[in-house]
Amino acid sequence: MLFDSNMWLTERQKYGVVSTAAGVVFFLLGILAFFDSSLLAIGNLLFVIGVILIIGPTRTIYFFARPTKIRPTIFFFGGITLILFKRSFIGFIVEGVGILSLFGDFIGTIVQFLRNVPRWNRT
Predict the structure, then answer these.
(1) Is residue 76 over pLDDT 90?
(2) Where exactly are the structural domains of the chain?
(3) Distance in angstroms (rounded) separating the CA atoms of residues 17 and 62
(4) How far is it, in rounded angstroms, from Cα 93 to Cα 109?
(5) Burial tier of 121 (Cβ tally within 10 Å: 0-12, 13-18, 19+)
(6) How many CB atoms lie within 10 A of CB 60?
(7) 96: which residues sit within 8 A by CB, 6+ positions away?
(8) How far is CA 88 from CA 47, 79, 93, 98, 107, in A?
(9) What is the greatest pairwise CA distance in the chain?
(10) 98 CB-near residues (< 8 Å, 6+ apart)
């Protein structure tokens, strides 16, 4: 079992974590497949759905619409749009800038979460 029954995540958030992780996997596969736009698009879709499931729709809108995050949000969704229009490499670069600006603060939180996942913590 990937998630322990006494973890602090709700059922919806567990699905969100799985969706986000699948999105990252598809995104990486898209990169490994020489920027295959289909895999990148599926990865983006799963990632955004996962974020919505983890923090909820209202907080997701607030997260992306904060005045300090407007420019990174434009880069992120602009990159997704470029990928959907088959401009994979340019879209990847634009989206990457947006991802680093939007989610760079959460890297420590993500690492800490992964350490608490029972099967991934081998210490």
Answers:
(1) yes
(2) 11-112
(3) 19
(4) 24
(5) exposed
(6) 15
(7) 79
(8) 17, 8, 9, 15, 25
(9) 44
(10) 72, 73, 74, 75, 76, 77, 78, 79
Helix (H) or strand (E) segment spanning residue 53: helix 37-55
- State which amino acid sits at residue 94: V
Read off the pLDDT of residues 28-67 as tens digits, 9 standing for 90 and up: 999 999 999 999 999 999 999 999 999 999 999 999 999 9
For the stretch 95-113, pLDDT in tens is: 999 999 998 888 888 788 7
Around Cβ 67, how many Cβ atoms within 10 Å?
6
Single-letter amino acid code for the residue at 65: A
| Token pair 């603060």: residue | 105
